[in-house]
Write a sequence for this structure.
């Protein structure tokens, strides 16, 4: 009897402990399952890369390609007809202002000048005769030995002789000027970049398709011409610093300044022509070289900058995916200037907002996302 009671007590105690174990294990199992479910949901959330919206700096930079030109360049043509007697400068020669470049023989012009001088002598003689005749007739009129009509005729003859004298002298001066062009001289100091004459060659002025005798370039100061985009044209000012880099010179850099702008935007290209001058005392910068010019621009009202790869363009217009509380939210934007790697945002975003870069199709409104850890540069 006592053994059966003891067995039942043992059995009841075992059942009691089993119930306690079951009641304690169920909550732990549920918690584990919940954690596993949340873990799987987090793993299934799209992995995204984010960036922070920042405000542009008041001082900015812009790099634009340009072409180096000579500060001054002149094509020298013949002004008088003749034959090249000799030339004194060849390509690459550095000449001073007024230096003799070539001499031209002008036999026909010399003969015209001699003829004009002889004709001028005749005109001067006729003028002297008309003057003395006028003086005599004036005296005769005073003595009433001649009429006023006759005196008027002599005065008209003297005026005609005076005009003929002026015309003759002007013709001689014209031919003398043409004769002086037989000496081709440099209008300014520079380098001869082209020579198209040979000894004995016939040259003449104003011939259709005629090539210049010489091309002279002054390159002690390099002039770089740029086409500045309309987006920053209003921010560019004369006197702004500029850095000119030339790849063909091993990336050598030269410091220059913006000296002038066209003051107007080309309607076809939406750019403004700008000139940057660079000191070039050693003539390292050659006309025609390709250069990259870094300009310093000043933003009067710096705007917010959004990475270009964070911009989403859809039928509803430009948008960005903003990350808030671990979820993606689409924000409609009003855009300003396109700055290449970045886009100016006028409205729709706040400074410091976190945006998703290159959002995939899995990212929809309200989607929970995972942020990829930032990689070290």
């Amino acid at each position: 009897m006592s053994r059966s009671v003891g067995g039942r007590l043992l059995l009841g105690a075992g059942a009691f402990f089993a119930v306690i174990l079951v009641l304690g294990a169920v909550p732990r199992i549920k918690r584990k399952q919940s954690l596993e479910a949340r873990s799987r949901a987090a793993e299934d959330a799209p992995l995204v890369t984010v960036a922070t919206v920042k405000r542009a700096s008041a001082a900015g930079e812009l790099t634009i390609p340009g072409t180096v030109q000579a500060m001054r360049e002149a094509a020298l043509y013949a002004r008088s007809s003749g034959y090249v007697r000799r030339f004194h400068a060849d390509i690459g020669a550095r000449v001073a202002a007024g230096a003799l470049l070539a001499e031209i023989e002008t036999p026909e012009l010399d003969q015209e000048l001699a003829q004009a001088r002889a004709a001028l002598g005749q005109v001067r003689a006729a003028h002297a005769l008309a003057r003395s005749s006028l003086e005599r007739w004036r005296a005769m009129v005073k003595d009433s030995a001649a009429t006023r009509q006759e005196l008027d005729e002599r005065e008209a003859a003297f005026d005609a002789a005076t005009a003929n004298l002026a015309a003759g002298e002007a013709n001689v001066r014209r031919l003398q000027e043409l004769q002086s062009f037989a000496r081709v001289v440099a209008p300014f100091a520079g380098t001869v970049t082209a020579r198209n004459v040979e000894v004995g060659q016939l040259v003449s002025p104003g011939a259709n398709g005629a090539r210049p005798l010489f091309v002279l370039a002054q390159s002690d100061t390099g002039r770089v011409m740029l086409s500045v985009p309309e987006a920053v044209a209003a921010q560019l000012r004369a006197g702004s610093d500029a850095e000119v880099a030339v790849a063909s010179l091993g990336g050598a850099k030269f410091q220059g300044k913006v000296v002038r702008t066209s003051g107007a935007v080309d309607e076809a290209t939406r750019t403004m022509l700008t000139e940057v001058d660079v000191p070039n005392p050693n003539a390292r910068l050659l006309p025609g070289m390709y250069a990259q010019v870094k300009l310093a621009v000043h933003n009067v009202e710096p705007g917010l900058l959004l990475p270009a790869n964070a911009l989403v363009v859809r039928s509803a217009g430009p948008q960005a995916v903003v990350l808030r509380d671990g979820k993606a939210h689409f924000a409609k934007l009003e855009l300003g200037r396109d700055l290449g790697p970045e886009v100016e945002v006028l409205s729709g975003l706040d400074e410091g907002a976190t945006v998703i870069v290159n959002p995939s199709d899995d990212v929809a409104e309200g989607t929970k996302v995972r942020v990829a850890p930032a990689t070290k540069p």
